[in-house]
Design brief:
Shape: elongated
Helix content: 40-55%
Oligomer: single chain
Order of helices and strands: EHHEEHHHHHHEHEHEHEEH
Strand content: 5-15%
Strand order of the largest sheet: 5-4-6-7-8
Number of helices: 12
Largest sheet: 5 strands, parallel
Number of strands: 8
Distance between the termini: 45 Å
Length: 295
């Protein structure tokens, strides 16, 4: 795997001028392209870091530095990193929570958004866990353990609480929805964009969602309808929220998850209703909403 001078600087966590200086001095071996540009082997950079005792983040994933670096580049390009997902699944099975937390933080700090982490990495990973559970290769307890390891990793991305003047949202999984990973990702996206979040977690009755919205006057309510919830559960929840809706405390309703995938043409007293299947689409909409509503 050959890297440019800019990429080499990112790996070694130094300025690109340091890379060029070390290369000119013969301390850091480089090949030249036909156009005269330097190219560095990842193995060479890692060996140099060890020799110089540089405490770079990538070394903490040894001996899997190449898979982590490749996965980072794929995520930046919007590609599902299959090899990185397989590595994470192995760490989940082995109970290596520390490595998972370090990896999620490493990717986020290098520009991979929460939405990209959810759509391209954690979503496919959870899907693989679900398939193994359905086919009997993973038990219920094991599935819960691995899912909560991922939740722990996401909590490492939490930001300090924002000011009370910030826009306020409620996030929850309706009754009988026990998997809250998607809701937690929505919470992190909201916080990433400066929102305060009232997070109710999993398995929340629709009446409680409506009452909490009234009590705290949130301007946005985001609900995650994951299996086993279906279209019927979405419609049932909406009926309850419509009955409890207070026009003096209006809000926008956002729905997501596979249970909401086949629901369309929804109407109600809410300011508006939006349905998303990709976190990236929700993040894009939220960015525009935040800009125009709180300029």
């Amino acid at each position: 795997m050959e890297l440019s001078s800019v990429e080499a600087a990112e790996v070694l966590e130094v300025h690109v001028s340091s890379i060029k200086r070390w290369s000119r001095a013969g301390k850091l071996k480089a090949e030249r392209t036909p156009g005269g540009h330097r190219r560095f082997a990842l193995e060479t950079l890692l060996a140099f870091a060890r020799q110089q005792q540089l405490a770079i983040a990538l070394l903490k994933f040894a001996p899997y530095e190449a898979q982590v670096w490749e996965g980072l580049q794929q995520l930046r390009q919007g590609i599902i990193p299959e090899h990185l997902i397989a590595l994470m699944y192995r760490w989940l099975r082995e109970g290596r929570s520390g490595r998972l937390i370090r990896l999620v933080v490493f990717l986020y700090r290098r520009g991979v958004s929460v939405a990209a982490l959810g759509d391209l990495l954690l979503g496919p990973l959870v899907g693989r866990i679900g398939i193994d559970w359905e086919e009997g290769r993973v038990g219920v307890g094991e599935e819960h353990r691995m899912t909560h390891m991922l939740i722990d990793a996401l909590y490492a991305l939490r930001r300090p609480e924002v000011e009370r003047e910030a826009p306020f949202a409620l996030v929850a999984c309706p009754e009988s929805a026990h998997h809250e990973l998607g809701a937690l990702l929505v919470r992190l996206i909201l916080e990433e964009l400066g929102w305060r979040v009232l997070y109710l977690g999993a398995d929340v009755p629709a009446e409680e969602i409506g009452w909490q919205q009234q009590q705290w006057r949130t301007e946005l309510v985001a609900l995650s309808f994951v299996p086993p919830l279906t279209r019927a559960d979405v419609l049932r929840t909406l009926r309850v929220l419509e009955q409890l809706y207070d026009e003096t405390r209006p809000y926008t309703l956002v729905l997501g998850g596979r249970g909401a995938a086949e629901v369309g043409g929804l109407h109600g007293p809410f300011r508006s209703i939006h349905i998303f299947q990709k976190l990236s689409d929700f993040a894009r909409w939220l960015r525009d909403y935040t800009t125009h509503s709180h300029a």
